[in-house]
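Hi everyone,

Forwarding the result from last night's run.
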Amino acid sequence: MKKILQLSSLLFITFYFAQQVSDYQYIYVPEKFNDKGVNKYGLNELLQLKLKQKKYTVLPENKENWPPELAQNPCEVLTANLSDTSNMFKNRLILEFKDCQNKSLLILEGKSSIKEFEPGMRAALEDAGKNLPMSMPVEKQFAVILRENNNNSEPVKKEVVVITEKSTAQVVPAPKTQATADQKAEVYSNGSVTFNRIFLANGEFILVNPNNSVPYATFKPSTKKEVYRVQLADGTATIGYLEEGNIVLELANSDGSFRKEILSRK
């Protein structure tokens, strides 16, 4: 988790990512869950399958078989757990993911109307897994500093000290030249909310609501020009693309269909 220790001016605002399940690559699934009631129905194997389908790497019970780098940094691993919350009408369960500090990062509820226990619990896990985000590991180091300039945000590099999980301290020096007009953030709106488009390295960019410290969406280039893999602030993975100067996001509806959210440049 990134922590900003010092900023040299109160006119600057620092935006950073809170850790999300989709930020991780490795997930440990115990052979036996704490709730003994969920250990009867083969849910361990089904959960591992669902995680692999979402591009996570599932770790075995024996930590000696884990990749060597995880022995040095166990906080790169999340732990999955299942709990039975069924009632007399529905089979229900909770799928929870915790980090190395036992902090819960994501809780998903699944339910099924199938009355038989084994197929009902497996269907409930399938239901919970629908909302599990795709694994999209990101760099732990990230800081974008913005300065207000005529109601537009202008990215400016400034000397800051950043503490990350993999290093003690890193100094990012300020450039000798001032920011130019080309560095100004582009402004987009969906009709009700305004976002700044902040360009990162390697063709990536983020959309930031000036009133929120967490980016609304993070865009990473796909293999197709102007089409991006997108991670939303809630961890949901989707796609986005550029169309006629607009940014278009495909957002899921509750019935499984999709709708377009069009962000027009102002």
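The longest strand covers residues 104-112.

Cheers,
N.
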